[in-house]
Write a structure and sequence with these properties.
- Helix content is about 25%, strand content about 30%.
- It contains ten helices and 37 strands.
- The strands form six sheets. It has a 19-stranded parallel β-sheet that branches. A seven-stranded mixed β-sheet has the order 5-4-1-6-10-7-11.
- Helix 6 (about 185-195) packs across helix 7 (about 210-215).
- The chain is elongated, with a radius of gyration of 33 Å.
- The chain binds uridine-diphosphate-N-acetylglucosamine and calcium ion.
- Uridine-diphosphate-N-acetylglucosamine (UD1) binds near residues 79 and 108.
């Protein structure tokens, strides 16, 4: 357990986020497979707080529903009107019933890059220095819009001044308030009771608690973030994209340091829930989403999108889209394959070029090399499905299953009209429409007989190029004999 385990973490997420210009509440926008508030809640959980309270307001039902679905154990406090960050924290403390004894950490719901590590460091400094409040600050290239950290001649923090309330001289300050704080819970509650609203926005500023506590003689401290980009708050979609690219870089680097070769980190996108084994190779233009796992020595890409998909050791997945599929060890997929939910490819199997599969179990060593649709099927081991075959699974009302045994050889251009079963070791002729079960070891032929009508071209297309070519061919063969 964390030594500086806080009594509570409060996540502020009641704001509307108008600058996103979106029907989706700001904190529910996603990067790397997780909502903005989800990233913050995940980092907060690393502190193992006794209580984790998210303050919701705008679109509260949606945000609450999202938290209940994905982050069980988080509590929500409702802030009816957004009267400022201080007011929001007050609502959270009311939800808790009484001021917590111990540390209360406050974070904003729109800072998805904030790491658990930085939060732990803040809580550590706060405890070690015996502060009433410790603010996480950062030196930023452009401090426009942020609250400025005002220090006295000795370097001690005296107050935080909001951009809108700042003087010309204060606006020149590059050190800003990240919006992340560690407070003594009791003193926080006392301080919040004294916050006034005589500022340019007529709001209760959480930032004022710092100067209130300092004036009352309590210790106030600041912890400067090592990397200012970590506290990037998202207000619009430009910042959303910036955060996505920073977070993605972090995730790709983590994979590379764990032994994964990523040929072009800038064109590879990885969700936070993706896992890798060493010596996997990721080629350019690849998106790995959801709960995707890439096995040792597997090679994925280029131009591939895998969602909730498991790629076995040594598998090769080229120019492929897959969703909820399992790709066995040393299997080969693509180029240009589409694996839909429920596809389960055995070891050393193949789903080749222009092959679509859905709800299909393909046994070890079985190959579907070219131009085929395999839907609702079970295929045994070491079977070969001929090119351009279709598993005809839909009769217009219901889906039906096809079962094909092991060591079968089905001809090219077959239609398997389900429900149907083909026994082990069976063959089917090219161009067959298979509508009846095929017993093990049989050859099924289901196609029209070929008929050649000799001299048809000369009679029906006299003088044409085809007729002349046919004439020349017959003279050649006459000459040869
Ligand atoms: C706030 C800080 C500012 C800091 C900046 C960092 C205050 C007064 N200002 O400014 O010093 O540099 O964050 O990004 O604290 N929220 C609520 N309820 C409210 C108001 C806000 O839940 O009534 C939430 C918002 O949803 C958001 C967070 O608090 O997640 C910050 O609010 P925002 O309006 O973005 O504050 P800033 O003006 O950016
Ligand atoms: Ca903000």
């Amino acid at each position: 357990m964390s030594a500086n385990r806080p009594a509570a973490v409060v996540v502020l997420a009641a704001g509307e986020g108008t600058r996103m210009k979106s029907k989706t509440p700001k904190v529910l926008h996603e990067i790397a497979g997780r909502s903005l508030v989800g990233h913050v809640v995940s980092a907060a959980r690393e502190l193992e707080p006794e209580h984790l309270v998210v303050v919701v307001g705008h679109a509260r039902e949606q945000v609450k529903g999202h938290l209940e679905e994905h982050y069980a154990g988080t509590r929500t406090a409702v802030q009816e009107e957004q009267n400022g960050t201080g007011h929001a924290v007050r609502m959270a403390l009311e939800e808790l019933g009484r001021a917590p004894e111990g540390t209360v950490v406050v974070v904003c719901g729109d800072t998805p890059l904030l790491s658990g590590e930085t939060l732990r460091a803040l809580a550590g400094t706060h405890a070690a220095d015996g502060n009433a409040v410790t603010v996480l600050t950062a030196e930023v290239p452009d401090s426009t819009g942020y609250g400025r950290i005002v220090r006295d001649a000795s370097g001690a923090v005296t107050e935080i001044v909001e951009h809108k309330d700042a003087s010309e001289a204060q606006r020149a300050i590059r050190e800003i308030n990240s919006g992340v704080f560690a407070f003594d819970g009791q003193l926080l509650a006392d301080g919040l009771g004294k916050v006034r609203t005589d500022n340019s926005q007529g709001e209760e500023y959480l930032t004022d608690v710092l100067s209130i506590l300092r004036e009352a003689g309590h210790r106030v401290g600041a912890s400067v973030a090592a990397d200012h980009r970590e506290i990037l708050g998202i207000n619009n979609r430009v910042q959303l994209a910036e955060a996505r690219s920073l977070l993605n870089r972090r995730l790709v680097e983590r994979a590379m340091l764990a032994g994964v070769t990523v040929v072009d980190p800038a064109s590879v996108f990885v969700d936070v829930t993706v896992t890798f084994e060493p010596d996997a190779v990721i080629l350019p233009g690849t998106q790995l989403l959801g709960v995707t796992h890439i096995g040792e020595d597997a090679e994925v890409g280029p131009n591939t999108r895998l969602k909730d998909t498991t790629v076995g050791r040594g598998a090769r997945v080229d120019n492929t889209v897959a969703d909820s599929a399992v790709i066995g060890d040393s299997a080969s997929v693509g180029p240009f394959a589409y694996l839909r939910p429920g596809t389960n490819l055995g070891a050393k199997s193949k789903a080749g070029t222009y092959v679509e599969m859905k709800n299909a179990t393909v046994g070890e060593g079985t190959k579907v090399p070219h131009l085929s649709y395999v839907g609702d099927a079970t295929i045994g081991e070491y079977t070969n499905i001929g090119a351009a075959s279709v598993f005809v699974n839909y009769d217009g009302e219901a889906k039906h299953h096809t079962t094909i045994g092991s060591h079968c050889r089905t001809g090219s251009d077959n239609m398997f009209v389900a429900p149907i079963t083909i026994g082990d070791g069976a063959y089917t002729a090219a161009g067959s429409v298979i509508t009846k079960d095929v017993p093990a070891g049989s050859l099924a032929v289901a196609r029209g007989q070929q008929r050649n009508i000799e001299g048809w071209v000369a009679r029906k297309r006299p003088g044409s190029a085809a007729a002349q070519a046919a004439q020349a061919a017959s003279e050649d063969s006459a000459g040869e004999s």
